[in-house]
Amino acid sequence: MAKVTVDGIEVEVPNGASALQACEAAGKEIPRFCYHERLSVAGNCRMCLVEVEKAPKPVASCAYPVMDGMKIFTDTQTVRNARRGVMEFLLINHPLDCPICDQGGECDLQDQAVAYGKSFSRYEEGKRAVKDKYVGPLIKTIMNRCIHCTRCVRFSQEVAGVPEMGATGRGEAMEIGTYVEKALTTELSGNLIDICPVGALTSRPYAFITRPWELSKIESVDVMDALGAPIRVDVRAGEVLRVLPRQNDEVNEEWLADRSRFAIDGLKRRRLDRPWVRRDGKLVAASWAEAFQAVAAGLQGKRIGAIAGDTCDAESLFALKQMLNALGSTSHDARQDGARIDASRPDFYLFNSGIAGIDDADALVIIGSNPRVESPVLNARIRRRWLAGGFRVGMIGPDAELTYAAERLGAGPQDIAAAASFLDGAERPMIILGRGALARQDGAAILKAAWDLAASTNALREDWHGFNLLHHFGGQVGALDVGFVPGEGGHDVEGMLGGGVDALWLFAADDFDVARIPAGTFIVYQGHHGDRAAARADVILPGAAYTEKDGTYANTEGRVQHGRLSTMPPGEAREDWRIIRAASQFLGVTLPFDTLDALRGEMAGNHPALARLNAGPVRGCTDSTGPAGEGALSAEPFAPAVTNYWQVDPISRASAVMAECAATYLAPQPAMAAE
């Protein structure tokens, strides 16, 4: 550790730390544009100038390493004059369009010009003009505003792993762009908006919509993938206008995937906003009382089953399971994809190493998964660990364009056991098993084979748990935690679709083959979008999307977080647990709770893990006994679980922005002409 004095305050910082980090440790605010704590140091902007004792001139604190006994001064007249001069140069070519800039009100350049710049300009010549660039349907560019901080260039190369942005030209002719004008091929492009300190890169869907001071800001959790990133939902007049990430170093750091950020326009399209009942073969609008009466009549005397979707809150799943059990049914399943997941023990279905545990691993085998499209932010963490060195990655499955080097170890489940040699010598080996790999007839055998691989490579021990299952959505783990799987004598999804039940309660379940439902089955659909299953329903009960209710969600590592109600559900739609509670009364099995707190108390009594908020995974494995894993492994190779990242659930399928992304990124590429 080095002892450094900053404006008379003595602090200790690690050897190799920068002067800027020492200043922050002393509680001093240092202005900066190019410096970002998660990117490499560039030293471009010079805004972070400070004085160092015995140095001949002010130094760029972001790139200046500390030494024991160093004395730093952050607010001398020399420093003030230097910063004013730097700011004056930065503003020479910056256009005066703050009134029409979407960054206005949350712009680093605005804030620092006021705090550290001059109150007048001496520049009278014409400003430089730069052509705007096309970088895709999500990012709007106004390159006149660019100050060449190169944050976007470094993010694209270092975090996203797609080195498609860079600088061309020199001096006044220098421009930031994509070399060849094209859409950025990364699922993390929206983070460029957050890290751009000026208005050069802004959100295209959000352009000219509102001002930041007009928004109500609600902290919630993302459910569009299984990472469970903490988010901030920005709302105006009852409409979600923007979703931004919140920082959590153990989960998402400060990044957010593009689908989570930009699919929000799907929240206001194709919505179910009133109950519907099928009469004479046609769905007609009805009151809630009429809908519940139709449900009670339709379920009377029938074998009932329920299939739940992937983004449902744990409270509603718990209530639905309680209601079905009271009706004598144990046919309930949240694995609509057909994944053969053993829910008898949490570590059979959790990301046990923890997302932050990727930083500690030294070898990784990915089985039947493509983290880049299944969880882009988690994939960025794998890339960061790979860049640090001493980390080998192997892959079993179809060819995938990852953002790090991965050795191909095989194509199908029969190659799993042979991957043990790849992990030889690893101190902390990791296995990531994709949920999509279990959605096959031999899924249970694959789960056991992956567990056995972890056991045979010393990945299951008291100080390390190297077996990890990567889920796809934010409601999947919570469903397993509340036991929304078939009970004794109950049918799974396959059994229910095979005629094991006479009536089906579909709870936001749209991602299975609805055509397989046997004719004559009575269907109750409870959900928020008129997607695939709603048209097949006999009764539709309009529910709430994840931004329209208070709910509990568990991410892929089992971390429990609360989502918050940001806007009210549209029309007559209601929170899902309230719908189930009202239905139970009409069905004669009234559930014993009337408030959300009472429901959560009941749920915590049955499933204590869901009451431990924001607790990371328990490191280590105390019982290496594996899942049952009946059946033999198939020779059939793994297939991609996600073929269209942009449209994988009812919300993103209703989004016009996601439709444009799908059309842009999934369009066949033109063939190259022969030379």
Automatic annotation (TrEMBL):
Positions of the 4Fe-4S His(Cys)3-ligated-type domain: 78-117
Highest taxon, organism lineage: Bacteria
InterPro entries documented for this protein: 2Fe-2S_ferredoxin-like_sf, 2Fe-2S_ferredoxin-type, Mopterin_OxRdtase, Mopterin_OxRdtase_4Fe-4S_dom, NADH_UbQ_OxRdtase_75kDa_su_CS, NADH_UbQ_OxRdtase_ferredoxin, NADH_UbQ_OxRdtase_Gsu, NADH_UbQ_OxRdtase_Gsu_4Fe4S-bd
Reaction(s) the record says it catalyses: a quinone + NADH + 5 H(+)(in) = a quinol + NAD(+) + 4 H(+)(out)
Keywords: 2Fe-2S, 4Fe-4S, Iron, Iron-sulfur, Metal-binding, NAD, Quinone, Translocase
Entry-linked PROSITE patterns: 2FE2S_FER_2, 4FE4S_HC3, 4FE4S_MOW_BIS_MGD, COMPLEX1_75K_1, COMPLEX1_75K_2, COMPLEX1_75K_3, PROKAR_LIPOPROTEIN
Stretches assigned to the 4Fe-4S Mo/W bis-MGD-type domain: 215-271
Pfam families to which the protein is assigned, alphabetical: Fer2_4, Fer4_NDSU1, Fer4_Nqo3, Molybdopterin, NADH-G_4Fe-4S_3, NADH_dhqG_C
Segments forming domain 2Fe-2S ferredoxin-type: 2-78
Cofactor stoichiometry and binding remark: Binds 1 [2Fe-2S] cluster per subunit.
Cofactor: [2Fe-2S] cluster; [4Fe-4S] cluster
EC numbers: 7.1.1.-
Biological role: NDH-1 shuttles electrons from NADH, via FMN and iron-sulfur (Fe-S) centers, to quinones in the respiratory chain. Couples the redox reaction to proton translocation (for every two electrons transferred, four hydrogen ions are translocated across the cytoplasmic membrane), and thus conserves the redox energy in a proton gradient.
NCBIfam families: NuoG
Membership in a protein family: Belongs to the complex I 75 kDa subunit family.
Name of the molecule in the record: NADH-quinone oxidoreductase
Organism of origin: Sabulicella glaciei
Gene transcribed to yield this protein: nuoG
